[in-house]
Write a structure and sequence with these properties.
about 260 residues; alpha/beta; TIM Barrel; 2 domains; 8-stranded parallel sheet; globular
Length: about 260
């Protein structure tokens, strides 16, 4: 399972203040903690704090000074991506593009040029779809464009777009069905990912809902998540689910 640590994001007050003050300590502390917890990538999100590519580059360089964990560049702005990707060492995950033609044409050539992986969101100019079929249609467009540019399936991460259970309960079966259908796009199939915290927005039992949804999504073919890697119950649930899917070999010490 590919786990992307979500915590280096200016949506969190400590990271926002650190970026504004150019204080490396909070970023490096979270980079170390998430790496020690087993993160496969560290998501780095500048958010609305700045539109200056230099600030994203500073965040990436600060994280890389502390750990060797690969970076997930969290931006939908081509200008920021073009500079930030040059600052990354090793394999890069770009988060993200949509199926909108203008967005794909701006983002995916950069991804292809650098041999990076990317996340494709199952949405287009009309917004987030409400049906399985539209999610599959949008991601089919993304996969076709990626392959046209020579991006292989193993570098494609498709995101069905997890929606809040509390406000969009009727969407949950559609999302899980889309996950299952994404596995049919190619052989080997693309990766399938979600921003897990979206599921529990506004709820009381966030951790329980997050890990339950993720286990169900794994059963349908999901193999990656942007999530709280510090949540040991979540990580252990993922490890158990992977055993039941026969992706890993059982050992008594599977849980941490």
């Amino acid at each position: 399972m590919i786990l992307v640590g979500e915590r280096i994001n200016t949506g969190f007050k400590d990271i926002k203040q650190a970026v504004m003050d150019k204080d490396p300590k909070p970023l490096q502390e979270w980079a170390r903690k998430q790496t020690e917890a087993g993160a496969s990538y560290l998501d780095v999100n500048l958010g609305a704090v700045s539109g200056d590519p230099a600030d994203m580059c500073w965040m990436i360089e600060t994280v890389q000074a502390a750990v060797d964990t690969p970076i997930s560049i969290d931006t939908n702005k081509p200008k920021i991506l073009a500079e930030a990707i040059k600052a990354c060492k090793g394999k890069v995950l770009v988060n993200s593009t949509t199926a909108a033609e203008e967005k794909m044409n701006a983002m995916l050539p950069i991804v292809a040029e650098h041999g990076a992986s990317f996340i494709g969101l199952a949405m287009d100019e009309s917004g987030t779809p409400k049906t399985t079929d539209k999610r599959v249609e949008n991601c089919g467009i993304i996969v076709a464009k990626a392959m046209e540019l020579g991006i292989p399936p193993e570098n494609i991460f498709l995101d069905p777009i997890a929606m809040p259970l509390k406000f969009m309960q009727e969407q949950q079966p559609q999302i899980l069905d889309a996950v299952k259908q994404f596995t049919l796009f190619s052989d080997p199939p693309p990766h399938i990912v979600c921003g897990l915290s979206n599921v529990s927005n506004g709820t009381t039992h966030k951790k329980l809902l997050n890990r339950t949804f993720l286990v169900m999504a794994i059963a349908n073919g999901m193999d990656a998540a942007i999530c709280d890697v510090m949540d040991s119950d979540l990580v252990n649930a993922v490890r158990a689910a992977e055993l039941f899917m026969n992706r890993e070999i059982y050992a008594d010490a599977f849980a941490r």
